[in-house]
Amino acid sequence: MTVHTPRDEQDASAIIREAAENGTLLNLAGNGTKASMGRPNQTDATISSTALTGVTLYEPAELVISARSGTPVLEVMRVLAAKGQELPFEPMDYRWLLGSKGEPTIGAVAAMNISGPRRIMAGAARDSLIGVRFVNGRGEAVKSGGRVMKNVTGLDLVKLMAGSWGTLGFLTEVTFKVLPKQERMATLVIRGLDDRQAIEALSIALGSPFDVTGAAHIPDRDRRGGSTLIRLEGFRVSVDYRMNELRRLLKRFRFMDLLEGNGAEALWQSVRDASLLPDHGDRAIWRVSTAPTKGPEFAAQVAGALDAQWFYDWGGGLLWISTPADGDAGASVLREATKAFGGHATLVRAPAEIRSTLDVFEPQPEALMALSRGIKASFDPAGILNPGRMYAGV
């Protein structure tokens, strides 16, 4: 398969324009670390952002950074760390789950709206994304947004591109708002709570005025207890005060420890990257978003029908669920649970033959699918960009 590596936006425009004229279906890629996510699409060639690298703008005083789409996330983080800053939304690294190699790119973070545990406080990647440059399916270069947040009327192309998985355009540059790196991180660990008790504790913490930046629960193997994690970040004095108040607020849950340092950082990285799930490469992995208070019921319904393992992030609003990868990988059970409790279930990992026959993303009502098809047609009339990656025929 031909792999195109444009050196600049003009190259990308020429490649996509020619593909549109010839009906060449294009697979959009960075370094390929997430190539096995989504529906397998049947394409004729690949256009890769690997040659589009480098930070193009960084203004620490304005808390803004721009980088070409193929720039490794690690490089962006290093540049920010040198000035004591960071990406607010703590982007997940999928390599452990997918068994992939290479360096994740900043363009993929925007294209897939990738976030981590801090989303409950800082929002998703799309909430920090304030500017994009991309080439649409006609081969036209488009710039939207800029270096400051603005109120937007009409179609917000920046937010539309976030989470579009390359089906609307080939990103060439992205701009994010950033934040100062926190001086201290401390994690309150409550032991022995079952799922319902844990979600209750997390809900109390998140409803408090103490600015929780991480809220997760990791059930024990027997599902009768586990570790409930509540993270605070900020200035040392502030973290001390808020942690003491949080302990008082949650004192009825009793068995509490305080975790800091490298151990705490490694634990939250495991939550971020979903590496807390048992490492069975032959199992499917689902990512479920639902109302936090519905999380335990959701997990119980799935466990009643499948050999499932799971843990919670975002105060219970995000479940990572492992299921057997045979048959439909548990899709019928997960879809029934989303109907019963609300939410969205995305199949993150499964063999290609399973992903090709299932709805990888939560099925949309026909009215929303019609809207999705209309937007796709307006950006990519020939349907050449990542066809079918998210939904069949789109």
TrEMBL record:
Full protein name: Glycolate oxidase subunit GlcE
Biological classification of the source: Bacteria, Pseudomonadati, Pseudomonadota, Alphaproteobacteria, Hyphomicrobiales
Gene designation: glcE
Enzyme Commission no: 1.1.99.14
Membrane-crossing segments per the record: none
Limits of the FAD-binding PCMH-type domain: 1-181
Keywords: FAD, Flavoprotein, Oxidoreductase
Organism: Microvirga aerilata
Pfam families hit by this protein: FAD_binding_4 (PF01565)
Enzyme class: oxidoreductase
Coiled-coil region(s): none
InterPro entries on file: FAD-bd_PCMH (IPR016166), FAD-bd_PCMH-like_sf (IPR036318), FAD-bd_PCMH_sub2 (IPR016169), FAD-linked_Oxase-like_C (IPR016164), Oxid_FAD_bind_N (IPR006094), Vanillyl_alc_oxidase_C-sub2 (IPR016171)
Signal peptide residue numbers: none
Molecular-function GO term, any one: FAD binding
